[in-house]
Amino acid sequence: MKKVLLFKSASEDYVKAFSEHNYQTVFIEPLQFVYVNLQELSEKLQSLYYQPGLILTSPRAIESVSKCWAPSKFVTWNTKRIYTVGESSARKVKLLLGLEALGTRTGNAENLAKLILQENSSPSNFLFPCGNLSSELLPSKLQSGGITLDSLTVYETKENENLRSDLMRVNEDAEVCCMVFFSPSGCEYVQRQLQTFSNKLAHLPHFAIGNSTAHKIENLGLEIAGVAAKPKAENVLESVEHYFRTL
User: Fold this and answer.
1) More confident residue, 230 or 171
2) What are the angstrom distances between the C-alpha of 190 and each of 25, 29, 38, 159, 173?
3) Which of 123, 165, 167, 227 has its C-alpha lying 20 to 30 A from 192's C-alpha?
4) The model's pTM
């Protein structure tokens, strides 16, 4: 059975989708995260300044909010708008914060920006907890439409200390047929480690979730085999299957 190497934490959605099409999934998490500025985040969450709401574009941002979340303390957020970019993130918002999220079908920052501009009047101010490597695409798109983001770094992204050993282990598996990247930083860390030892992984087809990750792969001088239309297991599977069908 062919194996697909996914550079993300283990996910039942991906295991199920790929196994139903005779692929086995192998997960390697290239990143590790350190949460920061949680006291400042807690204070901002209690502020009445942010109308109409909150934007959470990554799982780690949602987790950072959950670390200082108290439903009784933040009851005002029940009447505000919470935006995210995918269905899995929306489920996480519901599970950890008890709130309903908007924008679940947007799939990327550019589409999310369009939706927010359509649904909110100018001027508006959103709270935007994000990572230290967060793209400027969303803030710049919204600012051009008169919507301000108060960006606060709530987690820092670092290379997983086990990444090299994980890659060397998987390199011995002859059935791995392709690699899927989920973030620009993850892609950069993986490619840097692959240059430190002789391997076959670097020559496998490279797939990406979203345009920013695809652009990062191209900027590293590598070829893109496919880009998933949305950040969902079914779309990643579709991209992989299309590539191998057309070979």
Assistant:
1) 171
2) 18, 10, 29, 9, 17
3) 227
4) 0.80
